[in-house]
Design a protein that fits this description.
An 8-stranded mixed beta sheet has the order 3-4-2-5-6-7-8-10. A two-stranded antiparallel sheet has the order 1-9. The protein is built from 6 helices and 10 strands. It starts with a helix and ends with a strand. It is globular. It has a single domain, classed as Rossmann fold (3-Layer(aba) Sandwich). Helix 2 crosses helix 3. It is of the alpha/beta class.
Length: about 170
């Protein structure tokens, strides 16, 4: 019986350590779900042909795979979606959303500075990036994925978010 109790305690300790370290990473599947849901709470221009999500990163970044799966079956305002990948922030062309991977977070201020009036939402996944110019920043808070919203940044790019999205977000100014 004592060995059984020790076994259970060791197993529980392992699970706590595993889940707490697992919780520190953001899951690209959940980020993709959040991204799609967020598109429903933003007033987009009616004149767009395709809803383009650009990723500043690499083709093999897990978020790219998940975004491609999602854009193959989902639409925004009845428009098809596509994903473009750019290794450098300076290469990014017309997009409705730009997702900057964790490794490329240093380029957030540069990209943000070029988006005034462009009706493009800048997305990030590193703590502090909403204060650096990202409109929406995915973070881990208490082991759960949350998102920060910088409403000032959204306004600066010429878009509006619904009050429902604001209620779900951690507001950053």
């Amino acid at each position: 019986m004592k060995n059984y109790i020790k076994y259970v305690l060791v197993l529980l300790a392992f699970m706590v350590v595993s889940f707490s370290s697992w919780g520190q990473r953001l899951d690209p599947k959940y980020e993709t779900i959040f991204i799609y849901q967020i598109t429903k709470y933003i007033e987009w221009p009616a004149d767009m042909n395709t809803f383009v999500i650009s990723v500043v990163g690499n083709e093999d970044d897990p978020i790219v795979k998940e975004l491609r799966k999602m854009t193959a079956v989902k639409k925004v305002m009845g428009k098809t979606m596509s994903v473009k990948v750019f290794k450098n922030a300076s290469e990014v062309t017309d997009s409705r959303m730009i997702f900057v991977t964790y490794k490329n977070s240093a380029s957030i201020p540069t990209i943000a500075g070029k988006l005034t009036g462009k009706k493009t939402i800048l997305l990030a996944e590193k703590a502090g990036m909403a204060k650096q110019g990202a409109a929406i920043n995915f973070i881990n808070k208490g082991g759960k994925m949350k998102f920060e919203l910088n409403k000032g940044t959204v306004t600066k790019v010429g878009l509006k978010v619904s009050s429902s999205l604001e209620k779900l977000a951690i507001l950053i100014s």
